[in-house]
Amino acid sequence: METTLDQLREGDCARILSLQMRGAMRRRLLDFGMIEGTSVRCVRQSPAGDPVLYLVRGTMLALRRQDGRQIAVEVVSCR
Amino acid sequence: MPLIALAGNPNVGKSTLFNALTGRNQHTGNWPGKTVEVAQGRCRYRGTEYQLVDLPGAYSLVSRSPEEAVAEAFLLDGTADCTVAVCDATSLERSLILALQLMELTKRLVVCVNLTDEAERAGIRVDIPALERQLGVPVVAACALREDGTETLMARVRAVCDGYEPLQPQRCGCGIRGETDEASDAIAAQFVLRAQQIAQRCVSREKQETASLTERLDRVLLRRFSGYAVMLLLLLGVFWLTIEGANYPSMGLQWCFDRLGELLRRGADALRLPPPLVGALLDGVYATAARVVAVMLPPMAIFFPLFTLLEDFGYLPRVAFLMDHRFRRAGACGKQSLTLCMGLGCNAAGVTGCRIIDSRRERLIAVLTNAFVPCNGRFPALIFLISVYFSRGSALLGAALLTMCLLLSVMMTLAGSGLLNRTALRGEPSSFVLEMPPYRTPRIGQVLVRSVRDRTLCVLGRAVIVAAPAGLVIWLLANLAPNGTPLLQSAAAFLNVPGRILGMNGAILLAFVLGSPANELVLPILMMILTSGSLLGAESSAAMAQVLDTAGFTWREALCTLVFFLFHWPCTTTLLTAYRETKSKKWTLLAAVLPTAFGCALCAAVNLFLHLFA
Question: For residue range B386-429, what is the model confidence (pLDDT) as tens digits?
């Protein structure tokens, strides 16, 4: 199922399809190894619901929903 | 002397490795020509001295934060005889991205896979010989915390420096950035894929049955109610320990300074020094400096280590995670929570710390509002006012009131940020990524050394250096009386009207003005004004309270003074730092005007309220 990163619920896993932003933020995500095909797990939401914590290549990253909205993902089952 | 550079992502234990290699033999300073501070140190191995440089933590050499630019410029210089790429064994895949980029820039590279103990606990095994084959450069496993593997690391580094190590770095040969943004992105993706490929071949994991410690702690510390409750309790606990613990050493120090003062005075009498000279030196320079040390040192020496422990434990990014939505609503960056926390130590450090914020607009917001949180120079004065006028000696009540002061500070930081966002610094909140490192057992010894030597003594030293000449100037002002009234008294009388409007008086406002070089000075200067510079040995809190009492000070003045302590112009060091960071007189001026305006408005409001209703 195709959706965006911010739509994942706690415990969901997904595969990145594309980054739909450019410039500094895109490069920052590339630094953390977020490219097409990368697996991501939604670990937990902050109490206010935003930002959200994701596990990417063994690292925990907090992203705001407005940024997650620009990352297209495909929901997959967690291994 | 061979030069070794340490490079790596933040949170991979790079500084721990640096400390393990250099021991106490290090200092922090500006690298010639660069403005970002880098730690330097020396290390002796098999009879050769090596110079070590700890480059700022960087996620990549392609992005352009100031830290990363420094790391790249340094590596491109080619001055290093060997570069050590420090990697995290628990997330090798990610740290390899930087190591692969480093390999493009330099041939003389040694990869150090650090944090092997944490990896072991998490069931992760890194095949070091396989990794070495894949990369074509020496790879060493290490656990810097236990100083495991540092010998082997130095042996390989030495071999590289001396040219004995056969190096065949498996480069992609694509450089680290392309002609266009698209090309740079494509190159960046290549590094990621290569890192992933290598990690698949060299890293094996066992399935973990139980959740990790970080996972279990985060379940409590990042939850809706427990998260905020723990944050408040931690703050309260730190303040309580600071207030309760500072009492006894404070009294001891005061006793020592009183005795020393008496001895000095007797010595001066014996030498038959002229009275004005004795007055200037003892009542001016000595008394001010002694008060600064006696009042400031104990709380600082407790607060700084406690705070550094929390920092080392990895708690501060959690604060940023919990608070981010507030900052987003104020149009600011979530990382501002981190610079705010740094400001609790020292506002100048907080302003420098704003470099971690990528967007210029949000960085300026953080710089301009940093002085809204009380720094360590202000805490002792706040504690003094609270304990004398409000908590009446109960450390727990004092800590609770101090926590409320801090909450007010945070609220005003958000209000100030929001105001800037709607006026001078309009814009949309930009995107940011915040790494949440795993919790780590703090290194108690290092924390003590770092917080006492690098922070407490540094801040205190600066305060004393400013206090001595300030004491002289104030003594002169208190004793020079061209028209019959001492200058200090005339100045206080001149400021009396604005002081009264703000619910204080001329003397207090004058103390704030004269205390601009360092907030630590405000209280000692106030003492000097109220006693006309004529008393020695009034360093104890009780004696200071007595002086304030005699001057007709009540809890109303104390409350307004407390508020003004929280919100007024930053000290000159902070303003100079703000100028260095913003390179603009306009923004520096605003950094002074903004908190002052908030302070004046709040004090006037409190004063009006008290007049009408109390």
Answer: 988 998 878 899 999 999 999 999 999 999 999 999 998 888 77
pTM of the model: 0.86
DSSP string, B19-78: HHHHTT-EEEEEPTT--SEEEEEEEEETTEEEEEEEPPP-S-SSS--HHHHHHHHHHHHT
- ipTM score for this prediction: 0.94
Q: What is the CATH number of the domain that holds A19?
A: 2.30.30.90
* Interface membership of B10 toward A (CB under 8 Å): no
Does the residue B218 lie in any domain? no
Domain count of chain B?
2
Domain count, chain A: 1
| Contact criterion met (CB < 8 Å) for B189 and A36 | yes
CA distance B80 to B102: 12
- Read off the DSSP letter of residue B486: -
In terms of residue numbers, what domain contains B555?
224-423+444-613
Nearest Cα residue to B345 out of B464, B452, B417, B221: B452
Cβ-defined contact of B321 to A62 (cutoff 8 Å): yes
Of chain A, the end-to-end C-alpha distance in Å amounts to 17
Q: What is the pLDDT of residue B210?
A: 66
Q: Is the pLDDT of residue B453 over 90?
A: no
CA of A30 to nearest chain B CA: how many angstroms apart?
Answer: 6
Q: Judge: A27–B429 Cβ closer than 8 Å, yes or no.
A: no
Q: What is the DSSP letter of B285?
A: I
Q: How far is B12 from chain A (nearest CA, A)?
A: 11
Which residue, of B205, B235, B256, is where some domain finishes?
B205
